[in-house]
TrEMBL record:
Organism this protein belongs to: Marchantia polymorpha (Common liverwort)
Active-site feature positions: 322 (proton acceptor)
An example Gene Ontology CC term for this record: chloroplast
Keywords recorded for this protein, A-Z: Allosteric enzyme, ATP-binding, Cytoplasm, Glycolysis, Kinase, Magnesium, Metal-binding, Nucleotide-binding, Transferase
Name this protein carries in UniProt: ATP-dependent 6-phosphofructokinase
Record's subunit section: Homotetramer.
EC number assigned by the record: 2.7.1.11
Amino acid sequence: MALVAATPLHSPVVSVSCRQLEGRTLKTSFLQPRAVVPFSIRSWNLSAPADRLRGDSRRSRRTNRNLTAIRSQDGKAGLESQDDFPDMSTEEFNRRFTLPHLNDLFNVQPMRSTFCTKSSCPLPSETNNSSSRWEDLRKVFVHDDDRVLLKTIKYANPTSSGAECFDEDCNFHHQWVPRAGPRSKIYFDPSEVKAAIVTCGGLCPGLNDVIRQIVLTLDVYGVKRMLGITYGYRGFFEESLEPIVLTRHLVQNIHLAGGSLLGVSRGGAKTSDIVDTLQEKGINMLFVLGGNGTHAGANAIHEEARRRRMKLAVVGVPKTIDNDILLMDKTFGFDTAVEEAQRAINTAYIEANSAYNGIGIVKLMGRQSGFIAMHASLASGQVDVCLIPEVPFALDGGHGVLQHIQHLIEERGKAVICVAEGAGQDLLPTNNGTDPSGNPILGDIGTHLQREIKKYFKAASITVDIKYIDPTYMIRACRANASDGILCAVLGQNAVHGAFAGYSGITVGIANNHYVYLPIPEVISHARNVDPDSRMWHRCLTSTGQPDFIANSS
Ligand SMILES: Nc1ncnc2c1ncn2[C@@H]1O[C@H](COP(=O)(O)OP(=O)(O)OP(=O)(O)O)[C@@H](O)[C@H]1O
Ligand SMILES: O=P(O)(O)OC[C@H]1O[C@](O)(CO)[C@@H](O)[C@@H]1O
Ligand SMILES: [Mg+2]
């Protein structure tokens, strides 16, 4: 292949990955842990309240007192202070993760649950405890005191990859959160329930599945009045937007299509207007499907309803293909998005592989979090360079992306790049604009990369064939895959069980493969990010073979 002579382009790590390709030994230094400092910042992400969650506020608490030498795995000594670890006593954790309940304000007498999946369901009027038909139902219910362990790894040392520690010895803290599911006692009489569902933010595979499961479950409890609020929070105050009456029959097949039966929107949410409408319509159960913004809105509605002493249960179901909600294994729609994304990557690979010096670029969603890009890169096994918002990179210089791409072209005659939309924003002119919900409007890193690569190879007089693929909306407007379909079913059903159990201001999730209820503020204090020191990111790097694209080096 006729190429200009290569300069020593790549960092030692690049040559390691290329040698690996040539069947030679992989240097062990490739995945060595980084410096000591970042480890305890990560633990902030997971459990501290919003005002203590930011690394900078943590750093400001750094003092010279009580400094302890900690030896990292690579033998370098680092200094950490107990002050640098978040305070997380069991009492503090339990206080924060106690679910708000209607009986914090009222004295609602619970009744026997009307939820029943047996063929011979007892009537609610059958109150005899010893009735054999009630006995039959015993194992249907989850006990109020059932708990799920939020964290399951006992880290030996704060320098372990992904370690979340509360002290320098990484002592294990039991963090138990309430198990989700139907309770034997309920705090709403189904005949008095008027439920509403709203879907907000961007689309996400599985929205219709969740709507459907909420309706079906409400129906099993015996709820007759169910409304779908149209076009997100907007549907609460725009007079032209009428709610849809929801029935089992109406939702029966909606999961066969992507999108949202109810429609979505961004912006325009005024809590007091929303709560006015809820009051006017006599809605006492509200199911809110959306991301961080939507959940912030749901929590504001919950707080305002409490202030007005309304008996309203507000329950969220986290929706985001970005997977950027804290404390959960994953959010619904993410799996499907990854599956679709890797199809786009495969296309880019085939194009790049078939072209003379082919370069495929795929831009994927992920405003602040690179989970889709990381997982799709890993899943496809066809990506040479994965760029995410959490890991800064340089385009130029001896350790920059462009030289690495030149190296890939020279070595293999092709390169595939997967970039998350929020990556490399520092390389683009700032745009200070926001969307109607206040989310920042990002610069287009995909087309920027395309332009820069074109310019670079032109200057180097190397012919390349660049194909740019932006499957942005294709990965989220599709129908949920089987694994998301199941997740949606469980989450939708658990949302209804949570409302009947009398909880409000909560959301549903999956933690360590078990289903849990969490207080909304704990999951939205900031966006969940890819941890650059995590095993998963290192697995991605192992797979792509990409080096650190270190800035300011030549
Ligand atoms: N802090 C907040 N308080 C009250 N309402 C909010 C808040 N942030 C956003 N909202 C409202 O929530 C709705 C959805 O917000 P947003 O558009 O940010 O989507 P999202 O739920 O974060 O989902 P996505 O992941 O698609 O961004 C909008 O109507 C917005 O006005
Ligand atoms: O174009 P829209 O509808 O604002 O949505 C784009 C955003 O939606 C998200 O997928 C979150 O739902 C982000 O990754 C992306 O930036
Ligand atoms: Mg948002």
